[in-house]
């Protein structure tokens, strides 16, 4: 398990500080003090279940607020000005905590009516709309486990995730349903379908033994009152499918107890308070969109903004101004895209409402940090974590000075470090494995039906192995260096090369394919495929386009290679493993290093 660092990232390391005023009004005013006195047991007391022993995250997020402060407080602001058949003027809506209690009760009732049970997995495959949030809340109400699926996924990706999770039902729209291979999913019994214009024409799919139900019709008939199903802290919360460097995507299962971590990090890292308007730009198809788009802010009773539709710089600025967003959680690629749109358009909007900004998903390059600070007056703060960690682990904090480019320091009550292959902590400025001491509240419960994969993360005793490399400096800041496996972060989204390669070789012209992440100024990395062609196919730009389009249509737009290079053969080891290290060297025009294990 020797440490290999991914290709030099374009993050420039700096020794420039972001300094904070001595007296800053932050939920965690003093990091050192917070670490010293910290006990997760004390955080548990913030939840009703610590007294009642009745656990359900929907009670802590919605019902307890609806009974008090949240009766009239907006929980969700939704805005999507794009006209559609059903909403010719677009959508501009508000839901109080009370509204969400009623709506999620309705959907919980619908699920119960069709015998969806506690801990059943139910896929939620919807565009970013209020119904997506209501569906997830309704599933929590009856103790089912949502499996959120990103809207861009196509048939192959959907099939893998639905069959692995053995989902009993799916909530989706009429047009997204076309990507669900109904005949290949023996566990799927119910489809809750959202109309997008005319009625959804739900009908009985008797031949496949799958029942279709019209979401809106069912909701109308359902009761607005439904008591949550009570569980224990160890019951399942959510499954997010995520990619590794080998094999298909794996289901990361979290437990109800994770809310303890979501809550406290939202309080101290996002610095959320009662009067904030908070905007997390991530889709709930990814972990940031649930942990910090749903669980964290709502267990704290905070108003959240959700923007529908596609990324449009000016619409983002408008949203900040329209809702007077005070805390904003986004990603480096988004900041860089705003930056590339130019500074002129930022001048038309006011960002005065912003008081705190955080960033996640990939290293925040100093140039993007400085630009956001210049335009909004607020410096974005790094947060490092993973689908598997469930919550933020290494961060820069609102009250603390930090070095531009540094990833940050471990959250109080957690311990992250840099170790060698034996798990020994390394001296400052030495590159090693980025690890987290096991036992933080939002640590994944299991990899769904895959114990060996789960165990791989814990092969150094006492530590969770992140798969990232890093070093610690003498001031205790951890600096992310790269991935030590072949996982690609493209525009902040995690993509496994194996999934893309599997999609590529389905194309009739492709004999072999090897996929890597190629450093890119805007997206962090782009997906690049090396392809050898079957005989009878000639290399051409048109073929490149066709192959990329093929992946876009079968797997997902964000997983389609933006660059393709044809090669004679894809380099493999004698045991048949693709040597992506060699591909990266080819791409960068560098020497390939030791190739003694390469097949002849
Ligand atoms: C939340 C999320 C996890 C991987 C992680 C690392 C990269 C995330 C980062 C960062 C540098 C940061 N990553 N935050 N790298 N600086 N602040 O992104 O989860 O999609 O599972 O990705 O993302 O490589 O291992 P996930």
Protein model, in words:
The structure is a single chain. With 600 residues, the chain is of the alpha/beta class. It has three domains: 87-230, Rossmann fold; 244-483, Rossmann fold (3-Layer(aba) Sandwich); 493-588, ANL, C-terminal domain (GMP Synthetase, Chain A, domain 3). It is 28% helix and 24% strand. The protein contains 18 helices and 29 strands. Strands 3-2-13-12-14-15-16-17-19 form a nine-stranded mixed sheet, sandwiched between helices. A six-stranded mixed sheet has the order 5-4-6-7-9-8, with helices on both faces. Strands 20-21-23-24 form a four-stranded antiparallel sheet, with no helix packed on it. Strand 25 (488-490) and strand 26 form a beta hairpin. The chain is globular, with a radius of gyration of 24 Å. The two termini are 25 Å apart. 50% of the residues are buried. Residues 6-10 have low confidence and may be disordered.
> What's the CATH C level of the largest domain?
Alpha Beta
Q: Which CATH architecture of the largest domain?
A: 3-Layer(aba) Sandwich
CATH topology of the largest domain: Rossmann fold
Helices, by number, come to 18
Radius of gyration: 24 Å
Gross morphology is globular
Outline the low-pLDDT stretches: 6-10
Give the strand order, joined by hyphens, for the main sheet.
3-2-13-12-14-15-16-17-19
The biggest sheet, with number of strands, parallel, antiparallel or mixed sense and barrel status, is: 9 strands, mixed
The average pLDDT value, as a whole number, equals 94
Distance between the termini: 25 Å
Annotation, overall tally of beta strands? 29
